[in-house]
Please model this.
Amino acid sequence: EAEVAQSPRYKITEKSQAVAFWCDPISGHATLYWYRQILGQGPELLVQFQDESVVDDSQLPKDRFSAERLKGVDSTLKIQPAELGDSAMYLCASSLDSAYNEQFFGPGTRLTVL
Amino acid sequence: AQKITQTQPGMFVQEKEAVTLDCTYDTSDPSYGLFWYKQPSSGEMIFLIYQGSYDQQNATEGRYSLNFQKARKSANLVISASQLGDSAMYFCAMRESGGSNYKLTFGKGTLLTVNP
Model:
């Protein structure tokens, strides 16, 4: 069964360090999403890609966060420098296209910033 | 104003009984979709059920059904015959069609505990 892959599953870093997360969506899925989920809350969209193009990054803190999907397949989310408040679960999801009903989520990367 | 409201931080249910998880939403978009996701302690989000705003009938998927009351803007999830494996966080989400991104907005979730 096709799945969304994410790595690493867990990451511990110190504040001011750089971290990067990787996501490989389900093959053929044009739309890729990065969400941040703070403990006790629902996921919040950080950035959405349609193929290699960003269609929504309105909630992405652009002074420290960056995201890319160079070939329209896998994607990388980077934080530099990390802050204590960035501790959260980072979830990647994909869908066939942006209008398709179901988003399929990966297992997430749990980030702890010390 | 919050777009998705889940008023139950936690719910308990006995195994084999039914449970209803509440969700109300706020939108002025005539075309929207409502979703329920399950999130076990392992962290992945598992899609459960979908209801479109123009769907005439309530959605059902196995033991899951969505009690859609459009006039009241509610989309409650009903789980019948609860199982121990149903213990998890449950999130209600809404997708509005305005713009081109169809992004999901999630509620804060309800933690369901199924007791043996």
Summary: The radius of gyration of chain A is 13 Å. Chain A has no helices and eleven strands.
